[in-house]
Amino acid sequence: MADTIYDVAIIGSGPAGYTAAIRAGQLGLKVALIESATVLGGTCLHVGCIPTKALLFNAELWDHLKHAAEYGIDNVDGRTLNWSAVQTRKTSIVDKHTKGLGFLMKKNKVTVISGYGRLTGAAKDGIHTIDLTATDGAKSEVKTKNIILATGSDAKMIFGLKPDDRILTNIEMLSVPQVPKSLIVIGAGAVGVEFSSIFRSFGTEVTLVEFLPRIMPPEDEEISKELTRVFKKRGIDINTGAKVEKIEKTETGVKVTWTSNGKSVEKEAEKVLVAVGRAGRIADVGIDKTKIELDRGFIKVGEAQETAEPGIYAIGDIVAGLPQLAHSGSMSGIVAVTKIAGRKYRSVRRDRVPACTYSEPQIGSVGLTEAQAKEKGLEIKVGKFPFAGNSKATIVGSHDGFVKIVADAKYGEILGVHIIGPQATELIAEAVAVMELEGTIDELMFTIHAHPTISEAMLDAYAAVEGMAINA
Ligand code: FAD
Description:
FAD/NAD(P)-binding domain, Enolase-like, domain 1, 3 domains, seven-stranded mixed sheet, globular, binds flavin-adenine dinucleotide
């Protein structure tokens, strides 16, 4: 191994790292992928995107069955949830895609190296050295012309608590032995909201506690309002502007104390999920030996994901200002290796990263919220179309939510799209493409959408900007 000099060595095999490795192979680079875990795929595949979406799909089916009689399906009243079968299906999906990654590495001639990688400083004669510690403690070195750091992130904990069987992060929550009777979720970002949605569907009494004044704080205000309305209708207890003061174990569960409007509130539940954000894994990777610059615990990068240390790039969740999402991470990996291969690249457009939350109801958004557009002093027009007017939404029994469009007042260019409701996480792809192509309301009002589809709500929402939605 020490004799081989790679064109690029990638540390970390999450979606950012493995995508970079595959594209590097496709571009003809000699590439190594270093991973300290026993499996490839990182947070997203093992304890993030994929297992949560698997559980959300089970939850969706379970919710449909609650209305079986309405759909003319009788005799399902005595149904029971086989939690261990739910877990088995989730695990088999993860396993299938883990195997798939192994296949893709071989197909693209990526050398997978098992071990923990650390930077050693600047390149010598154009060659970097990575210190590698194998799982059995054996030390070796990897030589490479370029390095891409893709070490990802870890769930943050509050009050220095350690996760266990009652105070959980996403990792423990995904494999609880049974559905808890009650759950307090601290943090109402995408992770907190998705777990609240999953377990509420399965009958858990869910309490959501958020420090900021509204749930899903980065989303357009109207999205937060609609999600609050639907979640309350679903029986989720929502507490915003709530500062958690204490988390204590009791005989049977966990008690959380928070203050809200000057009042102290206490609530006990079987389990507590802490979902208060994720910290970049930048400690103990040798960053201190380099010129890499940090911004509040994340790595600063330039247009091609390059750090301040020549020949070292950073991608994915560890990058300052890049949305902590699998798809922004993977695109940042593609940009970095394309640059390394000396090919033409485009920087990651951070303002065009779709944000998706796969709860019930789903949320998909891209671009400026109405408030952000106003803060920028832009003259805007806003159109909103409720799914209540969409015939396919009626067919699938999903009328909550709307599509909201923020457009430039003068030229009609789409500046932001905010969707809450059925298939929102799929519909948002159209909005991203439209924004990439600088589409305008005039063009989109004449763009044919098939009938009856949920996507027709997009057409109506574009038209709503001019006060001319057909179905509202
Ligand atoms: P990671 O996926 O964290 O991978 C980093 C890898 O690096 C790991 O395998 C780790 O073992 C390895 N590593 C770390 N240090 C070293 C080292 N020194 N040497 C060798 N290997 C090392 N995003 C979405 O887009 N859609 C979703 O639906 C979604 N759902 C999510 C649900 C949950 C519950 C969570 C927690 C996150 C979710 N995310 C989702 C976010 C997504 O998982 C992350 O944005 C994504 O995994 C980041 O990818 P990454 O490659 O930067 O890092």
